[in-house]
Design brief:
This protein is of the alpha/beta class and 150 residues long. The protein has one domain: Lumazine/riboflavin synthase (Rossmann fold), CATH 3.40.50.960. Helices cover 47% and strands 21% of the residues. The protein is built from five helices and four strands, in the order E-H-E-H-E-H-E-H-H. A four-stranded parallel sheet has the order 2-1-3-4, with helices on both faces. Strand 3, helix 3 and strand 4 form a beta-alpha-beta unit. It is globular. One of its GO terms (molecular function) is 6,7-dimethyl-8-ribityllumazine synthase activity.
Amino acid sequence: MIEGKFYGCEDLKIGIVLSRFNSQVTERLLKGALDCLKRHGISNIDIVKVPGSMEIGFVLKRLINKDYDALIALGAIIRGETYHFDVVANEISKAVMQLNLEGKVPISFGILTTDTLEQAINRSGAKSGNKGFEAAMVAIEMAQLKRQLI
């Protein structure tokens, strides 16, 4: 069976693209992701901050051609009173999936799409764990899996 491992990953290079919008949530996601990576001995980490979730795709597309083993997209899209939530959530999801299909580097999707700020806080380290930590776990596993598939 071929699957990604969570050991022997100290030499991985990870890139994180972080949205500043809803920073009270996204900074908590980042903290969780960094905690996970450091627990696994990964110290070669670059962080690129962008204004909002729609801008994440632009940076991911540029980083995918660099020498990263995996990339992590972190953001928080919280439903408001307008259609904007649906547009942003749908488009960034499509962009990350398209880059995953076309690129040579796996991208972990750590972008929250919630109805309320409370839900986002719960998923960024309160009641429901930290989705940033989980996204980093996915990045490690996929980076290790990628090595086996080459």
